Amino acid sequence: MELEILIRKEVNKGMESAEPIFTFTVGSIPIDITINLVIQWIIMILLIGAALFFSKNLKEVPDKKQTIIESFVGFIRGLVDENMGDGYKTFVPFVGTISVYLLAMNFTGLIGLKPPTQSYGVALSMGIITFLVIQGYTIKKLGLLHYFAGYGKPFAVMLPLNLLERVMLPVSLSLRLFGNMFAATYIMSMAYSSLDKIGWIAQIGLPIPLHLYFDVFDGTIQMIIFLMISMINIKVIAEH
C-alpha cells in the first residue's frame, strides 16, 4: 500500500513538471512553457557557449583545451565509422550533439533537478528527431521513388509490417529512454523519502552511490543505447 502511494506521488510529480509555468499565444495557438522546457533551454545555452569556447582560436599545434575537443570529436568519429561505415561521416555532428545533449539532460539529477527525459513528451521528441533524420537522409540518398518502393521489400505483402516498423521506431526509442529514466528518478525519490525519516543529515552523503549509479551510469547507458539504435537504423533503412 505504501509503495502504491509512493508511485502515485512520483507520477503526480512527473505530471507537474509537464504543467505550464505560463502560457502565451502566437496568433490563436497557445504555447506552454514548462519546467522541462526551461531546463532544456538552459542546457542548450550552456552547450552552445561551451561549443563557442572550445572552437575559438584553434591552432595547428593544439593546446589542452583543443586537445580535449579533438579527442571527443575523434571518439565520435570512430563510433560512427565502427557502427555505420566510412560513408556516414556526415553524421558525426548529429551523433556528437545528441550524445552530449542526452547526457546533459540525464545528469540533471546530480544537481537536484528531475531529468527532462523522465517526461515522456521530452523522450518522444528525441525519438521523433531521430525518425525525421532517418527518413530525410534516406529520401536524400535514394530518392523519393526508391524510398517509398522500399516499404514493399522484399515482398509487396510486407508493406503493412514495414510501415508499422518505421512508425514504431520513435515509439520504442522514447519508451525505452522514458521508462529507464523515470524508474531511476522514482528510485532516487524513494531513497530520499526513506532517508528523510532518519534525519536530514542522512541525505548528505548516503545518496552519493545511488546518484553515481542511477544518474551517471544509467544516464550514460541510456544515451549509448539511444545512439546505437539510431545509428543502426540510419544505416539499415538508408540501405534497404
Automatic annotation (TrEMBL):
Main subcellular location of this protein, as a coarse class: membrane
Membrane association type: Multi-pass membrane protein
Coiled-coil intervals, chain numbering: none
GO molecular function ontology, one term from the record: proton-transporting ATP synthase activity, rotational mechanism
Entry keyword Transport: yes
SUPFAM superfamilies named in the record: F1F0 ATP synthase subunit A
InterPro entries, sorted: ATP_syn_F0_a_bact/chloroplast, ATP_synth_F0_asu, ATP_synth_F0_asu_AS, F0_ATP_A_sf
GO BP annotations, alphabetical order: proton motive force-driven plasma membrane ATP synthesis
Subcellular location: Cell membrane; Membrane
Membrane spanning stretches: 21-54, 91-113, 120-138, 212-234
Entry-linked HAMAP family: ATP_synth_a_bact (MF_01393)
Job of this protein: Key component of the proton channel; it plays a direct role in the translocation of protons across the membrane.
Protein's recorded name: ATP synthase subunit a
